[in-house]
Write a structure and sequence with these properties.
The structure is a homodimer of 326-residue chains. Chain A contains 9 helices and 12 strands. Chain A has 326 residues and is an alpha+beta fold.
Chain lengths: 326, 326
Amino acid sequence: MTENELSTLGEFGLIRRIQQQAGTARHLIKGIGDDCAVQIQQPEQELLTSTDLLIEGVHFNRRWISMEQLGRKAAAVNISDIAAMGGTPQSLFFAVGCPQKLSVVEIEDLSRGFLAEAEHYGAVLAGGDTCRSPGPLFLSVTVQGVIAAGSAIFRQGARAGDAIYVSGALGDSALALRLLQQGKSPPADLLARHLTPQARVTLGQLLSRQQLASALIDISDGLLADLGHILEDSAVGADLELECLPLSDAFRNLLAADRIVIDLALAGGEDYELLFTSAHQNLAGCADFSPPVTRIGSIRPGSGISIYQANRSLYHCSRGGFDHFT
Amino acid sequence: MTENELSTLGEFGLIRRIQQQAGTARHLIKGIGDDCAVQIQQPEQELLTSTDLLIEGVHFNRRWISMEQLGRKAAAVNISDIAAMGGTPQSLFFAVGCPQKLSVVEIEDLSRGFLAEAEHYGAVLAGGDTCRSPGPLFLSVTVQGVIAAGSAIFRQGARAGDAIYVSGALGDSALALRLLQQGKSPPADLLARHLTPQARVTLGQLLSRQQLASALIDISDGLLADLGHILEDSAVGADLELECLPLSDAFRNLLAADRIVIDLALAGGEDYELLFTSAHQNLAGCADFSPPVTRIGSIRPGSGISIYQANRSLYHCSRGGFDHFT
């Protein structure tokens, strides 16, 4: 018998191993290893919680992403939901449905990546579940964070006249995925944006602390789809300037050869940048933003999104946002 | 096109429908429909959190359980982890990986059962995730509850000399499952214990409020396995009295025909009864317990579990507890 096999280690052996690697935190009275995690509550703070599923063959393809990168990404994209409220991540819960063919080494790579990413954002692994999957690899991640009471930024606060901003650059992740699907090797910067996205926690905290944003969301389904969520919840419309979309050098290089690539910046998804609206018309010039933010349009009365090209004609995107069932 | 098809309704249409059915609660500032749920924190309380996976072909078989029952069970078994700390459930997060063949009606049955069960325990659906599954139906549930600060009952407090108690009756769920697997129709009481188990929230609250238990766990993997978790965490051993195991009439009827059935009460799993240790030697006589509790043995120094028969000879159980990987 070899310890490399999951069936030798067993479910509880696996949990013990992960428990040994998980860190501790001041707010955590009891982490992994009981029926529940037990945590201290702070009355001046509100609790933020979000749950995400990541399913093999839907959200990721193991031909392209290593188990360690997958662990990192699972933690980061979930923490991105805390950033999208302006909060601070504290605790993660990681549930894994493992296909029988998965080795202990692969699961340890997965949990090492997950733990490293959690630590990067100051969060701790506080619990989870492991079981056998008769189908693909399934991950479910729940994140808890905190925010000063009354400071959470919702999707619903955008007002006509507000400026629309986005952090970082758009479309890199979706472009990398398209190249992978075409059997090509994406440039390293693009690939990193797809395999190991970053959660914009510091930027979100700055926006909530300084009350700079009227509405906030992270871009997971694509700029147009996620802006659509803000517009619907705020009962307003938006005008976007196509030429203002922030694009990386690598993205621009590929865009030069094929103009349709711009639709990946509009609707590709998995950017995990922050998209927000603000009464401040010139925020982008402030030096404090890391990554930088770019103004890409304005909120107007009405509904829907109009995308203007440099010549003021309307642009029609060929892609919708990602919907799991359509 | 018919609204019966998930692809017509779409991911966001489905989320909107569930959102309309979800209730509200005083602690919940923002529920479904933003990047995170936002909740008030109470400083005199601690936060309890637990995550469970339920996977088709591993945890359930849709030939035997309706979608509504499955929704009820998913909520109840997760809430059982709050009961196992002595706490009060507050919020649930429900993530569903849907096979393409699942209809909107089936998903609504699932969520109706889930919501009804949550409401039964005073908990609210506060968030979740839905996506397509290329494999079986996958459910992931996260529950949050609260407990008076310092009152949570862990697995680790059992001491030599403590009495061991269990609530309700053991083995009904596992026996019903065995009959289903054999193609037989279980008696209605047994079947209900398997398909729609109850979380022992009121009993758990009583144990924590009156400080009656030194260690507490809910029985999901089987009496021996879950008692084993208490023993390991408390560094003690246990003597059990086989004749003292609480058994239902339906269980006794089948036991009379086949003595080996007793092993399902010892190691069958999915009882979701509370198992606890206490310095009080005669708790079972107190009238307050609903369901009643039964003393089944004692904690002793050392390690491991000795099971005594009426003639004082040792009994050897033929089954281990459930382990997902062995």
